[in-house]
Design a protein that fits this description.
The protein has helices spanning 23-57, 61-89, 92-110, 116-130, 133-142, 147-182, 193-202, 204-212, 234-245, 249-256, 259-283, 286-309, 311-316, 321-350, 356-386, 392-402, 405-411, 422-439, 441-451, 458-488, 491-496, 501-521, 523-529. By secondary structure, it is an all-alpha fold. It has three domains: 22-218, Growth Hormone, Chain: A; 247-309; 312-533, Growth Hormone, Chain: A (Up-down Bundle), CATH 1.20.1250. Helix 2 packs across helix 5. The longest helix has 36 residues, at 147-182. It is globular. The relative contact order is 0.15. It holds the Pfam family MFS_1. The chain crosses the membrane at residues 24-41, 62-81, 93-113, 154-179, 191-213, 259-280, 286-303, 315-339, 359-379, 391-412, 424-447, 459-481, 493-513. It is a multi-pass membrane protein.
Length: 534
């Protein structure tokens, strides 16, 4: 029987897997960390700007949940699929450079939005650009660091999420307060504080893109002793995936596979359309449920196409119950985490009566610290437990799902005390603890997805992983919390309602805990059985 330290891969003859990382690998990781910091500054800044955006554009909490979550998440997830495939076949550094320039420009464009629709369109553009980041970065990191260090390396990269999220609140809070004090009637070009904040965080990304372009591209798979030659047709797979995931091209791709495949594709479209129509009738949120239906239909179409075009990749991703349970289990962590993060600043402003600059500094600062500590310690713990148990990393994901529950309850039941800062201190402490506990799961989940596939599939595996975190966690968690807030008239009730996801996640992670060991030991065998020339 294979032990927990056995290597899943069989090294190429004469090439031993690496056992340590080079100094350049750490340099590259630092740059990728900065990219992820900016990624989340641009993504998260809308949370601190939400009260001003709601007032200026006439929006409610459900609208903010849509703008923060669904408008971004659906396009991030869908374009992440073809861009993840491109990361598996093209120059990953170039791909990341282009994507960074695009999402930074679209963040700046958000500063000129005059209504919810134009802001939503800009958020969609941010999502498309940011879809290049993690597939490229995960694949690069996995080719710079050996397996035994991969959980730690991916956790360090992922810490950028929490630094970026925290910094976005601090920057956004100070800019809004300072700009509105200096220009109470609107400043240059008629811009108000929240619009100036979008511009201030978007433009620096163009400078960072120039630095990213100087990075070296590592040899794919060499660190595992499985060097993979560059693709001779790098864009072929990208366009195949694009046609397989973007409607209405999805129907053409299905028809090319035969009448039965076309009928199944149309059936899925009709079913999801009916579900969306029911949800629209129930909530009145047309854009929310149209985007969700399109996103889920596109993922179904892509997975069906992948099964026909690349049996080995399908077998190790969608055909692997261990992989699917892992990403959906972590998706439940993301569901909880994104919902609480989305409305933290709004709760502090509307329920506790705090000003924007104070919220940004304290919640942003402690949120960044808590997230950083959680993801780093969680990554280290996942590597330590993995060395002792093949299911060790799944235990860390479960920890990240269970432990935030009590801090979330304590934070979002905090009542306003007009005579003391104790209420704000309590909220900040418990919200930060929830963030720290939830963040511990990310490195473990990311490393598990990379270990369950072959080197050439890592970008696609990452894109699939982020389908769960975005189309499920980000697209549904914040919106449903906002919608329940509107229905109940209580933001506290809205946020606390999302705790129903915890038992669902624990069930999925139990199955992952049971299945991951065998799945990881048999990666090469299952890939070979599906036609991979290993």
């Amino acid at each position: 029987m294979a032990g927990p330290n056995d290597n899943q891969d069989t090294a190429a003859p004469g090439i031993a897997p690496a056992t340590s990382a080079s100094p350049y690998a750490w340099y590259g990781l630092f740059i990728l960390f900065l990219v992820y910091v900016l990624n989340f500054i641009d993504r998260q800044i809308i949370t601190i700007l939400a009260p001003d955006i709601k007032a200026d554009l006439g929006l409610d909490d459900a609208d903010i949940g849509f703008l923060y979550g669904t408008a971004f998440a659906v396009f991030y997830a869908l374009f992440g699929i073809p861009l993840g495939r491109l990361a598996d076949s093209w120059h990953r550094v170039r791909l990341l450079t282009v994507g960074l320039a695009i999402w930074s420009a679209m963040t700046a464009v958000s500063g000129f939005a005059k209504n919810g629709l134009t802001l939503g369109l800009a958020r969609m553009g941010v999502g498309i650009g940011e879809a290049t980041a993690s597939p490229s970065a995960y694949s690069l990191i996995s080719d710079m660091f050996p397996k035994r260090m991969r959980g730690t390396a991916l956790a360090i990269y992922s810490a950028g999420l929490y630094f970026g999220g925290g910094i976005s609140l601090m920057i956004g809070g100070f800019i809004v307060a300072g700009w509105n004090n200096a220009y109470p009637g609107g400043g240059p070009l008629g811009l108000v504080g929240w619009q100036a904040a979008f511009l201030a965080v978007g433009v620096p990304g163009l400078l960072l893109a120039a630095w990213v372009a100087t990075m070296r591209e590592p040899v794919r798979g060499l660190v595992d002793g499985l060097p993979t030659p560059p693709s001779t047709e790098p864009f072929r797979g990208f366009f195949q995936e694009l046609f397989a995931v973007i409607p209405p091209f999805t129907m053409i791709a299905a028809a090319q596979r035969g009448a039965a495949a076309f009928a199944v594709n149309i059936g899925a479209l009709v079913l999801l359309g009916l579900i969306a129509a029911g949800m629209i009738a129930l909530t009145g949120a047309t854009l929310q449920w149209l985007c969700i239906a399109i996103g889920y239909y596109a993922v179904f179409s892509w997975a069906s196409s992948l099964r026909a075009r690349d049996k080995a990749t399908f077998a190790l991703i969608w055909g692997s119950p261990a992989f699917v349970c892992t990403i959906l289990g972590y998706g439940c962590v993301a569901f909880l985490s994104y919902a609480t993060t989305a409305f933290g600043p709004t709760y502090a402003a509307q329920v506790l009566g705090e000003d924007t600059a104070k919220i940004g500094f304290w919640i942003g600062g402690f949120g960044a610290l808590g997230g950083f500590l959680g993801v780093i310690l969680g990554g280290r713990m996942s590597d330590w437990l993995r060395a002792r148990s093949e299911s060790g990393r799944i235990m860390v994901i479960a920890f990240g799902l269970i432990t935030p529950v009590i801090p979330v309850i304590l934070a979002y039941t905090t009542a306003n005390d007009p005579n003391s800062d104790a209420d704000f201190i309590r909220f900040t402490v418990f919200a930060s603890l929830a963030n720290m506990f939830a963040s511990s799961a990310l490195g473990a989940a990311a490393a598990t997805t990379q270990d369950l596939v072959m080197p050439r599939m890592r970008g696609t595996a990452t894109a699939t992983f982020f389908l769960a975190t975005t189309l499920f966690g980000l697209a549904l968690g914040p919106y449903l919390a906002g919608q329940m807030s509107v229905i109940s008239g209580s933001l506290s009730t809205g946020v606390l309602s999302i705790l129903v996801i915890v038992p669902v996640g624990l069930t999925l992670l139990f199955f992952a805990w049971r299945m991951v060991p065998l799945a990881e030991r048999t990666v090469v065998e299952r890939a070979r059985a599906a036609g991979e020339p290993v």
